């Protein structure tokens, strides 16, 4: 069992200690944490990492939750590629897209949370769920991707496609 | 130079009842617009389930590389969403204006059947006027 505690420590330090965007304290969070959850998926939908810091509401069990999240993102990516006004020829809905191909969304916002998304050329997807007042988190996701590359991808004892420990 | 590419109105069950595109960039053929509308309806519902906090009312803004999608859901479940250029301002206000037009010219029309495609001339006319006014205001800025 590979212990990649250094990756976890970096993420905890990054989110636990820093103020990404100063926001007035909301009634639901007492600690003032900025991020709710993080997910990392690989190309096949395997959830490589899931951490939650502040999640008062759980609607589904973890397996279903991961599958639903992956499915939502896959469909939203397909929708964004279809609705893209700049490309001349759009594939049909449901045609799998290569990671770099076509227009992809990078975030969406609801009244209770904001979800930021980044996909790398190798198909690894980074998802961050934060409070709705967050500004553009693409740089943050790139930073996390760099951490992933350093501590996970370059770890000789890590098997790609398995959950990060 | 249009800031808005297209406008969709979806009924409670996810069926497309109104679709209008502005310019060639937003254009989509009928079948595709129906599929996109249903897909959006489902995604909106799923996003509510994945919320870490109680009381989520679905996606309000989707930001992509080439466009933004603003969505407004009324209390009855009718969704209005507009696909526009990235960074377009005041889309929420525009959606509320469109909602008011919908109420006045569609819902109060005695010949309009609920949840059916909208075929109300006055709604079209006033909608075009509202979008034009908005466009002029945007260009003038």
Automatic annotation (TrEMBL), chain A:
The keyword Endoplasmic reticulum applies. Belongs to the TRAPP small subunits family. BET5 subfamily. One of its GO terms (biological process) is endoplasmic reticulum to Golgi vesicle-mediated transport. Keywords: Endoplasmic reticulum, ER-Golgi transport, Golgi apparatus, Transport. Part of the multisubunit transport protein particle (TRAPP) complex. It is found in: Endoplasmic reticulum; Golgi apparatus, cis-Golgi network. This is Trafficking protein particle complex subunit. SMART domains: Sybindin. Pfam families: Sybindin (PF04099). The keyword Transport applies. One of its GO terms (cellular component) is Golgi apparatus. Coiled coil: none annotated. Its main location: endoplasmic reticulum.
UniProtKB/TrEMBL annotation, chain B:
InterPro entries: Longin-like_dom_sf, TRAPPC. One of its GO terms (biological process) is endoplasmic reticulum to Golgi vesicle-mediated transport. Keywords: Endoplasmic reticulum, ER-Golgi transport, Golgi apparatus, Transport. SMART domains: Sybindin. It is found in: Endoplasmic reticulum; Golgi apparatus, cis-Golgi network; Golgi apparatus. Part of the multisubunit transport protein particle (TRAPP) complex. This is Trafficking protein particle complex subunit. It comes from Gossypium trilobum.
């Amino acid at each position: 069992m590979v212990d990649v505690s250094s990756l976890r420590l970096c993420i905890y330090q990054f989110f636990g200690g820093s103020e990404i965007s100063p926001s007035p304290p909301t009634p639901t969070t007492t600690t003032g944490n900025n991020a709710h959850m993080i997910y990392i998926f690989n190309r096949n939908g395997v959830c490589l990492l899931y951490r939650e810091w502040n999640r008062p509401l759980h609607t589904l069990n973890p397996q279903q939750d991961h599958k639903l999240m992956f499915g939502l993102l896959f469909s939203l990516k397909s929708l964004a590629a279809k609705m893209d006004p700049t490309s001349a020829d759009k594939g049909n809905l449901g045609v799998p897209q290569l990671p770099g191909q076509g227009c992809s969304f990078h975030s969406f916002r609801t009244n209770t949370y904001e979800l930021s998304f980044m996909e790398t050329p190798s198909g690894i997807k980074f998802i961050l769920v934060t409070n709705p007042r967050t500004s553009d988190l693409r740089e943050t996701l790139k930073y996390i991707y760099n951490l992933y590359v350093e501590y996970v991808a370059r770890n000789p004892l890590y098997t790609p496609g398995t959950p990060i420990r | 130079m249009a800031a808005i590419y297209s406008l969709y109105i979806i009924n409670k069950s996810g069926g497309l009842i109104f679709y209008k595109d502005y310019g060639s960039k937003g254009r989509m053929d009928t079948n595709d617009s129906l599929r996109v509308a249903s897909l959006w309806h489902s995604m909106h519902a799923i996003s509510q389930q994945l919320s870490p906090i109680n009381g989520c009312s679905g996606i309000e803004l989707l930001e992509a590389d080439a466009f933004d999608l603003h969505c407004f859901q009324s209390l009855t479940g009718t969704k209005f969403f507009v696909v526009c250029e990235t960074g377009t301002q005041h889309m929420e206000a525009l959606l509320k204006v469109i909602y008011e037009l919908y109420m006045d010219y569609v819902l109060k029309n005695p010949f309009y059947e609920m949840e059916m495609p909208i075929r109300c001339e006055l709604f079209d006319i006033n909608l075009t006027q509202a979008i034009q006014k908005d466009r002029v205001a945007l260009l003038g800025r």
